Amino acid sequence: MILPCSFFNRPAPEVARALLGQTLVRRLPDGRRLAAVITETEAYDGFEDEASHAHRGRTPRNGVMFGPPGRIYLYLCYGMHWMLNLVTREADYPAAVLLRGTSDVSGPGRLTRHFDLDGQLNGQSLGSASGLWIRSAGSDPGSRRIRTAPRVGVDYAGPQWASKPWRFILKGKRNG
User: Fold this and answer.
1) Neighbours of 176 (CB within 10 A)
2) CA–CA distance, 133 with 69 (Å, rounded to integer)
3) Tell me, what DSSP letter sits at residue 174?
4) Which residue in 84, 6, 13, 77 sits closest to 44, CA to CA?
């Protein structure tokens, strides 16, 4: 079953944890499908989160983060790596989950290269129409299999935000 957009209509840390163990699916332009279990995520939630792109308000780059939930937010990092984020929460509240790894690949830049993702899907809804969706695993991996850690590369946000344990890792898979 494809996860509906309503799955994403809650706080980003909850969605980030709930995505672990689900399957990211990509239908390539030639019709082939790639699929891998999500093993690592990071949450960015709201105006106060100083590590979030939306901390200072809406811009042309981060506008997709303002919803609605279940949208694809792809942005270019350092001019070379596309980053795949999934928008959470209600419209006009900026929140998203960065996908950092799957059972096939570790690292957000490698993930987008592996799944042949770039800015073309930015702003589209997850689902068969866009060719990118999340398939339900049908079960929760259980808290014993999930490890939390601080987010990566956000020291600029100050200790309060850089140390938040909003990075979620599924133990026993490629990243854990």
Assistant:
1) 14
2) 13
3) T
4) 13
Mean pLDDT of the chain: 90
**22 domain-assigned:** yes
DSSP 55-118: TT---TTTGGGGS-TTBEEEEEETTTEEEEEEE-SSTTS-EEEEEEEESS-BSHHHHHHHTT--
Query: What is the Cα–Cα distance from 51 to 163, expressed in whole angstroms?
Result: 10
126 located within any domain = yes
- The pTM score is 0.92
User: HSE (CB half, 13 Å, CA atoms) of 3?
Assistant: 29
* Domain membership of residue 114 as a residue range: 5-170
Quote the pLDDT of residue 175. Answer: 46
Q: Total structural domains in the chain?
A: 1
The parts of the chain modelled with pLDDT lower than 70 are 79, 142-143, 173-176
- CATH number at 80 reads 3.10.300.10
Residue that the structure tokens 């042309």 belong to: 60
